[in-house]
Fold:
Amino acid sequence: MKMVQIKDLVYRYFRRDDDDNIIETIEAIAGVNMDVEKGQFIAILGHNGSGKSSLAKHINGLLQPAEGAVYVKGMNTSSEEEIWRIRQSAGIVLQNPDNQIIGNIVEEDVAFGPENIGIPTQDIWTRVAESLEAVGMEAFRLSSPNRLSGGQKQRVAIAGILAMEPECIILDEPTAMLDPKGREDVIKTVHRLNKEKGITIILITHKMDEVVDADKLFVMDHGKVVMSGTPREVFSDVEKMKEHRLEVPHAAELAYELREEGIPLPEMIMTKKELVKALCQLS
Structure:
């Protein structure tokens, strides 16, 4: 079953002068097509301004298409009648958790979403407990969010979405403001939710080390999907990734440079272990 279908999506925004006259039309998304199957872990890559965050906001209905359509479980995100069902099915986690956390204590914040969609009180607290346990934050249930680290806040934001029991979670640069430990914790949490609970994950990022285990990658540039495939397929084309101002994992980059120097290494090396094995086989 397709969790998300994006068909010929176009989105434009406008620059205006001081008198509110339109002086420039910018096409942030330029004819994107994309299918995401239920239970997949999908990553959308791109440098700043590539259109990936605008795409994320369309999946949750925060933005509306200028042309084309976005469907979540067959529901059109442009339908006012279906938008709340869509947001229950596909929750979004933004890059700054402070923009999503509103409760004075952690459990209140996690309870906010299910309360607003009419879940009975007893069920809400069951969901809160389960969601905090799923992200490893149950010990902080009565803590103030203001006393948490960036990584802990982001996990609370994820718990708040989980409590609404979505089938899909969209994460828009969720580790952009975190230190290395916080990034590692959040990505591990996301992978665990995908594998253990079968939640469809759509991760928006420009950090290559976060996506090596994804099922499929989409690379965006100038509002278009310019590359797609498995991580191995995408990262093996180092030159094309560089054309789109993106890096590849360090092992893939080093293998590429060694091949450029004439050392006969396989094309699809992605990890340090694979690189060491390939080099040892040459001796």
In short: DSSP finds ten helices and ten strands in the chain. The mean pLDDT is 89. Strands lie at 2-16, 22-37, 41-45, 67-72, 75-76, 90-93, 168-172, 200-205, 216-221, 224-229.
